[in-house]
Amino acid sequence: MKKFLFCICLIFSSCDTNTNDSQSQDISQEKVLTTKTITINQSVEGSNVARPVIIQTPNNINQSKNYPVVFAFHGRGGKNTGWVNKLKNFTDNGDFVGIYPQGYLDSWNLGTEPSKADDVAFVTLIVNELKGYNNLDMNKLYAVGTSNGSGMVNKLAINTSHFKAISPIASQLMESMPILDNTKPSSVFQINGALDSTIPINGGSRFGHVFLDALKSAELWATKFECNFPAEIQSIGNNKLYVFNSCNDDKEIRYYRIENGQHNLEPSYPNMFLEIWEFFKRF
User: Fold this and answer.
1) DSSP assignment of 204-236, as one string?
2) CA 250, 254, 256 angle in degrees (round to 5)?
3) What pLDDT, in 10s, does the model give residues 227-244?
4) Rounded CA gap, 163 and 161, in Å?
5) What residue ranges do the domains of the chain occupy?
6) How confident is the model at residue 31 (pLDDT cuts 50, 70, 90)?
7) pLDDT exceeding 70 applies to what percent of the chain?
8) CATH code, 32-280
């Protein structure tokens, strides 16, 4: 009888061990770093919403390396899939891992957008999720955004300390979103087109927001982070690059004025993402 009970215990113990091993394997599989779309559940206006986030990785993961992470935020009405080809050369080559969230109702909530989601909380949920993956350098997080996504990266730099550096493209700071007393220093590479009629470089009212003058926007960052004044101005062709250096925590503020640039800056600045990445790598 004792032998019979002992055998039964062994059988159940073996089954339990196999079940635990299976569960552990399932959990580990969920955190494998590979190109895929994950979903982050968030409560938005009382409803649970599964929000997609693209993770774009190098073709071959070097298991001995921790990769920097670049978040990219689309413009209003855009899709996160638009970033896949824009940054594919960098991710394929192993420069960084790309993280491309999708805005709720295809927008980022800056106050007057269709989305009423708490997008700062959403990004924090993504950051916390990424901490469960191997081969990511969570001390080297960066963020780039265009238009409405540009406003989102400004908002994240103001309200969180997630990112070492940001690059707001084709937008600038707004009156309704001032830099806070407790905002942590971050490097900023702001890029604006002088011919932008969607969000004018001189600022003004658009989309329910009041945008600051683009140069004034950069100067506010530089003032907050106690950078050197006046800016060092470099002429690059017809364009002007304003550099505020020696900021707190060794940060730097850059403002690049593209004279022939419109709201879509890529045609007039073909090396834009390469130069943004070169800027990010320094921090």
Assistant:
1) EEETTEEEPPHHHHHHHHHHHTT--SS-EEEEE
2) 165
3) 999 999 999 999 999 999
4) 6
5) 32-280
6) confident
7) 89
8) 3.40.50.1820
